[in-house]
Amino acid sequence: MPAARFADQLNVQIGNELAAHNQYLACAVYYDAQTMPRMAAFFYAQALEEREHALMMVQYLLDTDAEVTVPGVGAPVSAFDDVIAPVALALAQEKRVTEQINGLLRIAREEFDFASEQFMQWFIKEQVEEVATMTDLLAVVSRNVDDIEDIEEYVAREQAAGGADPTAPRVAGA
Description:
It contains 5 helices and no strands. The protein has helices at 4-33, 37-63, 85-110, 114-143, 148-158. Helix 1 packs antiparallel against helix 2 (37-63) and helix 1 (4-33) packs antiparallel against helix 3 (85-110). The chain is elongated.
């Protein structure tokens, strides 16, 4: 069983991941309304990925006989001034999630909870990738704000599906 302090904070993180899911869904809807189908698809996929992260955490708690609580989440930002704003918000969100994930790893280490520390390693790697992806996307969207087709082409070229990560933790319900 994970350390109580870690399990409590992982339950909080489940809510953070579900909030990120909702935020990415709101970004996707915005881009869909702007007739930017590739950006919309990218953010719909990001939303599903955040939901999967929450369910990986649920599965870990279930696997370790820890209590699972699914917290409520606030409403996402759904109105944006321009095509740059959702990506800027996404980058800020990924940086915040990185801090949260690092905090979970820190708790696992402080509690000598080696299994939980090992579980968090995948999320550390994932956050490096997520911040890099959003940083690059923000640069492209900012540079091409007046040429939506260039943004769409970039997303089509660079964000092609890479397939499932065989090192990812199990997803509850999958």
